[in-house]
Amino acid sequence: MPELEAIVVLSGVPDRGDALSSVGDPRLVTVRLRAAQGMSRLLNVGVARARAPYVAFLWPDEVIKPDRLGATADALDRHGEAGFAFTDFDYVDGNGAVLRASATAPALHTLTRVPLENGWSLVPQPQLARALQAENFVALSSVVLRRQLLTEIGPFDERLTYCADLDLWFRLAHRYDVLYGDQVGHSCRRRCANALNPEDVRSARDRITLLRREKERWRDRAAQRLLDQSIAQSYAEMGYEESRRRHRLRSIAMFASAFATFPQARWLRGMLGLML
């Protein structure tokens, strides 16, 4: 795929201009923002500078496979009904050894997909929209989408510090089919921590915001209940984190919000355990 442009957006990091300029390839474009910006802003700046009909994304700690972009663009060329495409990915350690060969979420395998050529399948729009209610199975670095769609439905929401990718998938899923490739398109070197961290409260708060938006798009009661369940889970995550920080009253309030949103005994036990 020789007709390629690579746009690197830097924000709030040490100047690495020398390292980038040593690449010596005119297809490399570097954009440096003076002040630190959120990831949604960086993504939107990169898309705004792009000239190609397709755009793809890649986090700094992930490695793209050599043939993935060309194969995905070819698939989108052949199937104009699909708004975007994504692939499977794996987890690797610092030396590149595979830790997990397939990271695709189980929810994807429950979908009814239309088989296509070369390992691709088509996920119809209604299927995609419903499946995303339960789980975000679309990794940002696995996506190639038609750039014009970000003009039609809007860019990444810069008000969201976290989960802006899921917000975009929700909006796309209400209008377009998607292609899925079962081949591994990139490797993730991100260290996945199991424990909660200080950012979890902010992440859960943004997730609640976009889940509420998604709930407003549905009139189906079953869909609304599933989204309420996800909202309650996010409140509970905030409750656990506030409890870990010894913010007792805040934790009680979060568990109470979880129970009010989607009543479950575990939220009630969490709230009463802090009160007694």
Explained architecture:
This protein has 276 residues and is an alpha+beta fold. It folds into two domains: 6-188, Alpha-Beta Complex (Spore Coat Polysaccharide Biosynthesis Protein SpsA, Chain A); 200-275, Serine Threonine Protein Phosphatase 5, Tetratricopeptide repeat (Alpha Horseshoe). 44% of the residues lie in helices and 20% in strands. It contains eleven helices and ten strands. It has helices spanning 17-21, 39-49, 68-78, 106-109, 125-134, 149-152, 164-173, 200-216, 221-244, 248-261, 265-275, and strands spanning 6-11, 28-33, 54-56, 62-64, 82-92, 98-100, 114-115, 120-123, 143-146, 177-188. Strands 3, 4, 5, 6, 7, 8, 9 and 10 form an eight-stranded mixed β-sheet that branches. Strands 1-2 form a two-stranded parallel ribbon. Helix 1 links the parallel strand 1 (6-11) and strand 2 (28-33). Helix 7 packs parallel to helix 8 (200-216). The N and C termini lie far apart (63 Å).
